[in-house]
């Protein structure tokens, strides 16, 4: 919280309750973590900033003028002693009240008070998440299972039910739930088996591929759902959550390169996985999905093309973008945020996308690199510091197979060639570019020094430091070494 501003609760977003309820309590003990969590509240507009003078106006408007300002004069010399003493007492009381207000406001502006305010706001948000996720769910269940008003009134006039009868009703309800769970799980397993069988025999029998048809229908249904329909798991039954997990597991299995599903079916399964992850609305599901798809892509690269997919089709990849576009790093011709995945028309023939600090790098199918977005400190490697609204080719005399760009500081980037050489460019503070200096490098430059003659297999651009791993398993680090981040 910056001085001169206070924050008021706007409205909590229920689809974020799962994330807030999973926060470790130890994260609320340090100032750094509290500041980060507090910024999250402001970013998602769950807390709204108000200038201090507005709050002072609201505070003063609820009081009388005499209680807010010192409006008394000294006692008149011609007044009687009783009246003069009363006025002096009133003046002293208001003077003490005003000084108390000044002292209280000064204490509120201290850094320690700010930390306590932030911590209290975070604890209130976590409490709300737990309240909605657990207490409210149990309350809803009780209300759902309770009889209506008429039956309740009738029940009050009747004597208490027999505990044995009550236990029998509970047993019957439990049996019904178990039977329903058996039916649902058996039906899902049967559906998965039929889809696999239809996909395996469609090419032999010439019959329509039932698996592809079902997946296409499911993709259309998910696309037609309102945004974040699956975000609040507390409103889903345990059976629904488990069924969704089984469906996701089945979809991941058929996207594997060695599955019997054809290329179109694998594409539909990937689209459905992405749609479900977006509807669930948490970064955890999106990152997990990205890791799964990256694993599949690595297996396909090692074993050749996907079944039924030619190399020409693989070159025609599509890229979806979303998030901040403040520096036109998404190349969509606007500075507005993109809240949902959108097909990037200008990102063509791409085999890898790397999101940097307000910038984006593309590795194309021919090994060339393009960049767009913010270009301060030459972080795009285009030879200047001009921002780039559309992807522009980065001049590197080699085929690139991986790019790593920092997500903080003033931006620096590495490019790994197919022969294990490393190029770097951007901000050179702390020597993080590996060229033996701290100067800005606006075009890609080959890293020499200890890496000369080494075959690098992995690179990583940190905040103010960098790392590389060679094929011999050697780890090299350089840049800022604060807190021992370089391992030295």
Automatic annotation (TrEMBL):
Keywords: Repeat
Matching Pfam families: WD40_RLD
Transport in keyword set: no
Span of domain RCC1-like: 315-487
UniProt cross-references to Gene3D superfamilies, sorted A to Z: Regulator of chromosome condensation 1/beta-lactamase-inhibitor protein II
InterPro entries: RCC1-like_dom, RCC1/BLIP-II, Reg_chr_condens, Signaling_Regulatory_Domain
RCC repeat positions: 317-366, 367-419, 420-472, 473-488
UniProt cross-references to PANTHER family, sorted A to Z: BTK-BINDING PROTEIN-RELATED, E3 UBIQUITIN-PROTEIN LIGASE HERC1-RELATED
Full protein name: RCC1-like domain-containing protein
Species of origin: Laodelphax striatellus
Lineage: Eukaryota, Metazoa, Ecdysozoa, Arthropoda, Hexapoda
């Amino acid at each position: 919280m910056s001085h001169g501003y206070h924050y008021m609760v706007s409205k909590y977003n229920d689809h974020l309750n799962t994330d807030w309820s999973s926060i470790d309590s130890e994260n609320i003990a340090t100032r750094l973590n509290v500041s980060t969590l507090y910024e999250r509240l402001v970013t998602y507009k769950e807390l709204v900033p108000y200038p201090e003078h507005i709050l002072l106006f609201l505070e003063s408007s609820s009081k009388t003028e005499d209680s807010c300002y010192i409006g008394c004069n000294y006692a008149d010399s011609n007044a009687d002693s009783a009246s003069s003493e009363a006025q002096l007492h009133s003046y002293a009381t208001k003077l003490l009240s005003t000084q108390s207000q000044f002292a209280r406001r000064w204490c509120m502006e201290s850094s320690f008070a700010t930390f306590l305010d932030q911590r209290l706001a975070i604890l209130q948000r976590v409490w709300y998440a737990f309240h909605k996720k657990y207490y409210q769910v149990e309350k809803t269940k009780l209300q759902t299972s309770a009889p209506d008003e008429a039956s309740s009134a009738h029940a009050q006039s009747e004597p208490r039910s027999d505990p044995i009868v009550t236990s029998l009703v509970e047993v019957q309800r439990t049996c019904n739930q178990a039977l329903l769970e058996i039916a649902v799980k058996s039906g899902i397993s049967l559906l998965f088996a039929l889809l696999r069988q239809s996909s395996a025999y469609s090419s032999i029998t010439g019959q329509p591929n039932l698996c592809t048809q079902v997946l296409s229908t499911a993709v259309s249904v998910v696309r037609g759902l309102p945004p974040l329909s699956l975000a609040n798991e507390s409103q889903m039954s345990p059976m629904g959550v488990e069924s969704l997990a089984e469906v996701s597991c089945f979809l991941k299995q058929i996207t594997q390169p060695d599955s019997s599903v054809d290329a179109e079916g694998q594409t539909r399964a990937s689209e459905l996985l992405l749609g479900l992850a977006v509807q669930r609305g948490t970064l955890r599901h999106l990152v997990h999905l990205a890791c799964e798809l990256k694993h599949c892509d690595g297996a396909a690269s090692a074993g050749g093309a996907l079944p039924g997919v030619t190399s020409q089709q693989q070159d025609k990849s599509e890229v979806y973008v979303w998030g901040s576009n403040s520096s036109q790093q998404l190349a969509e011709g606007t500075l507005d945020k993109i809240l949902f995945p959108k097909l990037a028309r200008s990102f063509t023939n791409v085999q890898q996308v790397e999101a940097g600090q307000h910038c984006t790098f593309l590795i194309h199918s021919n090994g060339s690199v393009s960049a767009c977005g913010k270009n301060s400190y030459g972080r795009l490697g285009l030879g200047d510091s001009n921002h780039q609204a559309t992807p522009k080719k980065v001049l590197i005399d080699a085929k690139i197979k991986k790019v790593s760009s920092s997500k903080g500081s003033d931006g620096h980037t590495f490019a790994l060639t197919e022969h294990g050489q490393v190029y770097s460019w951007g901000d050179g503070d702390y020597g993080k570019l590996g060229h033996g200096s701290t100067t800005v490098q606006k075009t890609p430059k080959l890293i020499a020094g200890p890496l000369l003659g080494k075959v690098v297999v992995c690179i990583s651009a940190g905040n103010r430091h960098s790392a590389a791993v060679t094929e011999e398993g050697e780890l090299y680090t350089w840049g800022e070494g604060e807190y021992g981040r370089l391992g030295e």
